[in-house]
Amino acid sequence: MRQGVWKASTFVALGVAGFLALHPLSGHEASAPGSANASHRPAHSGGGGLFAWLGSASSTSSAATPAHTGTHLQQLRDARNPSEQCEALRTLALEATGDEEATDAIGDLTTPGGSRTTRLCAVTALEKVRSGASNSYLGDLLADEDKYVKSAALHALASRAADDADARGAVIAAAHSEDHETRLEALIALGDAHLPEASSLLQDAIATETGDRRERLIAALGETHDAAAVSTISAMLVDGSSQTRSVALEALGSIGGDAAVKVLEEKLKSGSREDAVAAAHALAKTGDAGAKQALLDATSSAQPAERAAAMQALVQLDGDDVKQTMHAGLSSTDPRVVT
Questions:
Q1: How many CB atoms lie within 10 A of CB 104?
Q2: Bridge partner residues of 112 (DSSP)
Q3: What one-character DSSP code corresponds to residue 302?
Q4: What's the whole-model pTM score?
Q5: Residue 135 · residue 157 · CB < 8 Å
């Protein structure tokens, strides 16, 4: 007897034995349709018996295969234009963590030479994939010549910096880069990610920047939620442009706390109409009880700008006291209240 034939026959014999052990042919196991035993037996299509049992292992393995292996990953490979690629990337990103093949497929679309749209979509997808491989792909982009792709990669890494030491280190290193644009964008990314340690670096940068760059840095400084930054931001209210003052007031609202609320109250009472509106909305943004009370008090101010700004900002808040104040303001004939 040939060895190969013996192995095959042995396999079949063992298979039959296993099948009969699990599915005995005695009469009490063979239930008629509609019987009690039959009612709990799952229905199978496509035949059954020994060969179905022998094939159950392979079918179970197939069922465990991640959905994207046969669908979403293939959709990405079949995509014909940036729009289709971005849609496929959006879906695949949700299930790519822990899947090297999917991560590599996404990372490959970040390389130079592709369309900017596709590359940016791929960066956004990698942001959702928490792994060392995605960090590596994003880190490679910190030296990219396309500033938009580089910026997106910095923000993607910064978004996970709070609990990912490698991502944090990459962005902090970029914040000390010799390249001016890279350094500023990294600082803004760290601030937008609410990392307090970025506060001092942002304050130093604000002192040397002007215009739109300074305003972006101020906004990022507010996002650090660092109370120690209130004095730096408040200084922008002294001689800054109207736009700079508006950004600074919003940043104070992001920080909140007693010091920020005090500055905002003063600006609501004594600032220009534009400043009063910005200060009122910033007060509402803080979620601070004292800020809410300041807005309620301001609705009866003798200053029209303060009164109107407070009424507009209270729309953002809840509470019976707010509803009563708003109702009184709308129904009052007092010119100090109705503007």
A1: 12
A2: 114
A3: S
A4: 0.73
A5: yes
Angle between helices 100-108 and 82-93 (to 10 degrees): 150
With beta carbons less than 8 A apart as the criterion, state whether 253 and 285 touch: yes
Cα 151 from Cα 141, distance rounded (Å): 9
Residue type, 143: A
Q: Which two tokens stand for residue 333?
A: 């004939």
Angle at Cα 177 formed by Cα 171 and Cα 178, nearest 5°?
A: 170
The neighbouring-strand residues paired with 114 are 112
Give CA–CA dist 197/212, Å, rounded: 23
Give pLDDT tens digits for 215-267: 999 999 999 999 999 999 999 999 899 999 999 999 999 999 999 999 999 99
User: Long-range contacts made by residues 58-64, C-beta under 8 angstroms, separation at least 24?
Assistant: none
Residue 20's φ and ψ, nearest 5 degrees, are -70, -30
Contact (CB, 8 A) for 275 and 306: no
Higher pLDDT, 288 or 49: 288
CA end-to-end distance (rounded Å), the chain: 105
Tokens representing residue 97 in the block: 């963590």
Contacts 24+ apart (CB under 8 A), 194-199: 194/162, 194/223, 194/224, 194/225, 195/158, 195/161, 195/162, 195/168, 195/224, 196/224, 196/225, 196/226, 198/224, 199/224, 199/226, 199/228, 199/229
Q: What is the pLDDT of residues 187-223, one digit of tens each?
A: 999 999 999 889 999 999 999 999 999 999 999 999 9
In terms of Cβ atoms closer than 10 Å to its own Cβ (0-12, 13-18, 19+), residue 208 is: exposed
- Look-up of token digits 């910096």: 161
Q: Please check the confidence at residue 17 and state whether its pLDDT lies above 50.
A: no
